[in-house]
Amino acid sequence: MAGHTRAVTAFVSAGAGFLLAVLWFDLMFDVQVLHHGRDEIPEHALASISAYYRRVTTAARPMNWLIAAVMLATIASAGIELARDDAPPWVGWASLALAGSAVSLAIGRTVPNAVRLGTRRDALDTQRRLAKSICREHLCCLAAIATVLILQLSSGR
Q1: pLDDT for position 61
Q2: What's 23-43 look like in SS3?
Q3: Which residues, in sequence order, are CB contacts of 67 under 8 Å at separation 6+?
């Protein structure tokens, strides 16, 4: 059982680590909105953010599907870890809830908004709102996924 525990925990940790890296790259662009009010985000910042999201959400096909696959694999691994009792139950449940909430937010709101922002078809006010929303959501996801990684690395059963 110890071998399985390490393997499943390693997979959850690897998935969380990968997703954390993806979030870090996204946030390198998102942070351009942090020091501005919604109506004050400069055009050059919007252009930079939207060009990034156009590349990573649309132009990167089929590689962008890797991120979705890792999201789902990380949740599945956390579920397997819980079902096998490979980590303390609170670690398994917390990891599953945190990863599941981050992935749900990303798939349900953040990615569609990033695709939309990448098109630059909306009015500037809408683009600014989308950029702020994406940044906030990525910060929430970063906190959730970082917590999953910390829980998994410290559970050491």
Answers
A1: 81
A2: HHHHHHHHHHHCCCCHHHCCH
A3: 19, 22
Model pLDDT, residue 1: 45
Q: Which of 49, 58, 57, 52 is nearest to 30 (CA)?
A: 49
Domain range spanning residue 29? 2-155
Decide if 56 contacts 37 (C-beta within 8 A).
Answer: no
Token pair for 76: 């599945």
- Distance from first CA to last CA of the chain, Å, rounded? 10
What is the per-residue pLDDT for 31?
95
Please check whether residue 46 is in contact with residue 131, taking contact to mean a CB–CB distance below 8 angstroms: yes
- Using an 8 Å Cβ cutoff, are 102 and 141 in contact? yes
The pLDDT of residue 6 is 62
Average confidence (pLDDT) per 10 residues, the chain, 157 residues = 62 96 96 82 94 93 89 96 90 96 97 97 95 97 98 82
The structure tokens listed for 125 are: 């006010």
For residues 41 and 156, what is the distance between their CA atoms, to the nearest angstrom?
Answer: 45
Domain count, the chain: 1
